[in-house]
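no rush on this but wanted to send it before i forget. theres a chain ive been looking at and ive put its sequence and its fold in token form underneath. please have a look and point out which stretches look like helix strand or loop to you. thanks a lot i owe you, the record is right below:
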Amino acid sequence: MKKYSTFTKEQYIDYIKLELTGGVLELEISDEIIGKFVDASLQEITRYLDTVTYVTVPFASCIDLTGFEDFACSAVTNIYRTEGYTGDGGSSFQDGSEIDPMYAQSWMIYSNGGSYYNLNNYIYNYLAYNTLIQIRNTMSTELDFVEDKVNHKLYINAAYDVPRFITIQYVPIYRDVSQVTSDYWIDILKRLALAHTKVALGRVRTRFTQTNALWTQDGETMLSEGNEELKELRETLRTNSLLFLPKD
């Protein structure tokens, strides 16, 4: 069972050919050329693609991004811990992580023999614990990071205990159309590649004119449709890109 949608280059080509021929006519443009228009369309929308992916790696204050296979990163957008402060189910005292006092008290209340005795003390401890967290965040921001794009380094600050693993959320570099898994972007890519192919096909069919022919080509119509669709799609991409502020 597939977890996401994906289109191969061959499927994009088949879609474009079906739209332009109805499965009956033949195109003057080869599949190889149509494939180049698909690749060119991917390059055009790359600057707008913001779909993120994740990778979990061993934590280090400085991570070399070139050291991970298939990690082609356009921009790191966020950093997450893979474990809470109370660990992953093992002993919290062994790995040095802090224990939320309210979390510990909840076990005492609902376990056999538990009661509300001295609950106020635990609430005060909890408030003190939150105050400590706020002070630490003021002095040193938890999971603050800086990406060095030139040297492909990622610097991460851990305000509390040092985690064993860290999850990096990033926008990947798209090198192949099969990497596009969002239904929205697949649709944009299909329509953009189709528009580019229409423009090329229209120019081919209007390269020469026949003055005494009994029939005429639809080159002018094809060229007009392609240019209009390109203009509309580019305006949509430009407008949508103004809805958020990219993190550089």
The chain has two domains: 9-49+175-208+218-242, 53-172.
